[in-house]
Amino acid sequence: MTKEIRVDNIKIGASNPLFLIAGPCVIESEASALRHAEVLKALARRFKIPFIFKSSYDKANRSSIDSYRGPGLARGLAILKKVKEEFDVPILSDVHCKGELEQASAVLDVIQIPAFLCRQTDFIIACAKTKKVINIKKGQFLAPWDIVNVIKKVEASGNNKILVTERGFSFGYNNLVSDMRSIPIMQKFGYPVIYDATHSVQLPGAQGKASGGEREFISVLARAATAAGCDGIFIEVHEDPSKALCDGPNSIALKDLEGLLRQVVGIRKVISG
């Protein structure tokens, strides 16, 4: 059993219910962020599933210099703060450099360490020292047992408020695979493990100047991860993934989320006895 981690009034891990991290990959506009948050909170309330809103103010690790990155630090955090205040939900976003941490930690409830940065020691230490809950995205290049070294960096910095997220492993060129054994393996290190069902179907760089994805497998993998005992599900959603400015091919349509939540909540009840 994993430790219990608190995010605002949400209890994560231990014997607590499956929880949801969801939102558009990147903030496209204030209106869009508010629309998505309203629908997501209503769905989470309907299924009695704890909910954290996720959207990025800046996606620094894009395939191309021409890729849309988001509104930036100041404007993006202002939008996330409005979502937090208007809908009373915890907020998660990824941070890409130490210089953003002071401003970001004033708004975010969870600081996410991007998968590509999960071995950057100085950055991880700086994130940990904010005393915020830290969500470590396991790099596509790490075996599940290697995540313990990242966890120890956060712990050594005086922070035991840790979440770990599985997002697939590199499998040849432009492809990822998911090994559901990674969920119980990483849970043995004592912290809640989340399954990112959307980035796990990403095809990195497959479109040349952008990543592709196989969104038709999101539901399959989310159900499998829930059955494997993950503590939470991470899902990027969009009103119209075909028009999303970032990661549309591996985002689920907002209208399809209700059916998936019904399935994973049902599976969770079964495995919980």
How much helicity do the residues have? 25-40%
CATH homologous superfamily caption = Aldolase class I
The CATH architecture classification is: Alpha-Beta Barrel
Largest sheet: 8 strands, parallel, barrel
Q: Count every beta strand, where a strand is a DSSP E run of 2 or more residues.
A: 15
Shape: globular
- Spans with pLDDT under 50 lasting ≥5 residues? none
Helix count from the secondary structure assignment:
8
What's the quick description here?
The protein has 273 residues and is α/β, with parallel strands linked by helices. Helices cover 32% and strands 20% of the residues.
Describe this structure in words.
This protein has helices at 30-47, 73-87, 101-105, 121-128, 147-156, 182-187, 218-227, 257-271; strands at residues 5-7, 10-12, 19-23, 51-54, 91-94, 110-113, 133-137, 162-166, 169-170, 176-177, 193-196, 202-203, 212-213, 232-238, 252-253. The strands form 4 sheets. It has an 8-stranded parallel beta barrel, surrounded by 5 helices. The chain has a two-stranded antiparallel ribbon with strand order 1-2. With 273 residues, the chain is an alpha/beta fold. The protein contains 8 helices and 15 strands. 32% of the residues lie in helices and 20% in strands. The mean pLDDT is 95. The protein has a single domain (5-271), classed as TIM Barrel (Alpha-Beta Barrel), CATH 3.20.20.
